[in-house]
Amino acid sequence: MAELASRLQTAQPAIRARAKIGPRGRREIVWFYVFISPWLFGFLFLTLVPMVMGFGLSLSNFNGLNWATMKFVGAANYLHALTDSQLWSSLRLTLLFTIVSVPLGLLVSMGLALLVNQEIRGKGLFRTLLYLPSFIPVVAGALAWRIFADKNSGLINGLLSWLRPGMALPWLTDLAPATLLMFVLWGGVGSGMIVLLGGLQAVPQDLREAALIDGANEWQALRYVTLPLMSPVLFFQLTIGIIGSLQILVPPLLLAASGYGSGTTVYTPPPQSIYMYLVYVFVQIFGNQAFAYGIAMLWILFVIVLLLTLLVFRTSRGWVHYEVEQ
Amino acid sequence: MAQSRRNLTYLLVVPLTVLFLIPLVWLVLTSFKKETEYLAYPITILPVTWQWVNYQLAVTMTAFSRYLFNTVYLAIFFTGLSTLSSAFVGFGFARHNVPGKNVLFTLVLAMIILPNLVTVVPQFIIFSRLKITGTYWPWVLWGLTASPWHIFLFRQYFSTFPRDLEDAAEVDGCSRFGIFWRIFLPNAWPALIISAIFNFQWVWGDFVNPLIFLSDEATTLAVKLSGSTYVDPHYNRLVTVTMAAVVLYILPIAVGFFAAQKRIIEGVVTTGIKG
Description:
Strand content of chain B: under 5%
CATH architecture of chain A: Orthogonal Bundle
CATH class of one domain in chain B: Mainly Alpha
Number of domains of chain A: 1
Order of helices and strands of chain B: HHHHHHHHHHHHHHH
Radius of gyration of chain B: 23 Å
Number of strands of chain B: 0
Largest sheet of chain B: none
Order of helices and strands of chain A: HHHHHHHHHHHHHH
Oligomer: heterodimer
Structural class of chain B: mainly alpha
Helix content of chain A: 55-70%
Largest sheet of chain A: none
Shape of chain B: globular
Radius of gyration of chain A: 24 Å
Shape of chain A: globular
Largest interface: A-B, 109 and 109 residues
Distance between the termini of chain B: 37 Å
Strand content of chain A: under 5%
Number of helices of chain A: 14
């Protein structure tokens, strides 16, 4: 993250340094802290304190109510996690989903960005319409997909049964992973496309043209000039994509399960095939009141996200190129 | 050559765009069907008769206006607070040269990788002890404390302002706060609009936080529509009425999106904030 920050910082003009700290400098320090105080306050009291408290509770048998009789249980919740088969299968599923959906999403976003970067009439309209599903609230998208992919009344099966009468695929049950993947791509590649379009347009055209004049074909110019120059943007998208995908919660929660929302006390979980990690955590905490165990699982996820982010940063040295050297 | 390439682009981009819009078109079409027509086999594409009554039912079968008011109210005050506080913090990072600043800014960005629930669940425990769950106070606190992407956006924007602007104001006896409030902020409309749009869109679409923190009366449309709100006397879900409510729910967002699409797209390009 430190690297990301410093790289983001180099991407914009540096502010002239002032002379060494005098009375004026001291005043500047005071004002700096005044200005960042809203964030600092939030960081301390809405992030740090809850995190430390949460970690403390994860070492207890807290169930949301037993403040008076709560006991310290050491690492028991973490040890339980090691042998919890539901946790492992949810984690495996989430990692698998991330490995498939993030690269695929990046690939589709890149393809779309290349398409709408062409000089065609109405390109602004295409950009807007392709981006629309990303801007629509996820709840609305999930409800729309629920009737779109419904086994009996959905449009997909309706069209399929025209091709082959009687054909009705179980999109929301047996095929739920495929539907979830399509839904996530539908609701995400549009914004990815816009971000990559920004990266694409920042690539100096003369470099690409020079490659073409030197005899490179379109594909080679893309592969050896455009993509390397865009690698910081691709890398950024990849990192954010992985972080987001490991935390997937609302799409599996709403896509296939029914009966969620206020006024419902019974949590009907989605099918096993899309029972993602955070879904399990959510059900444990808000369905079973297993607060301590749920928070322990959140800490496990946090460590996994952190390690994977570091891993991606590590591998990035081989393929991400920065024009600005520090 | 150029023409054939353009044709190929159309050949790909037109069907893809249509494909992307189909689920939304299907949503709108379904919202106009009779429930029996929706359930009938084989399916119909266009409604046999357009059931405008679904929209009437969507508004009257539940206290739609109350949940709409809750959502608008929450979205507006959160957007105001969060946009201003992020601009304030962004100005701090952009226009002060202080040792340790970069470390703190790295910390701001590092918060992006923190899974939301790691802080939200303990917050829920704290807030219910303080008896502020079921109220909008959590949103006041979240709004006042700025958010990483938006701080980044304003920091970028304010960094481009010329130094002379600040120096001249300082010579005129303007305080730091005055410089922010009277000079930088009024000249930051593009950033303010982008930040406000994304804050508004976030609250409008947020499902998890209202579900966790709000009671049934105080909750937002996102939560209300995903639950069993529209049912017949036998507790079967009325799909077509629900879809009419969903269309009403996304209408303001869709209209706002088309009205401000240029700025929104520009905003995504410069910050990487996603809708």
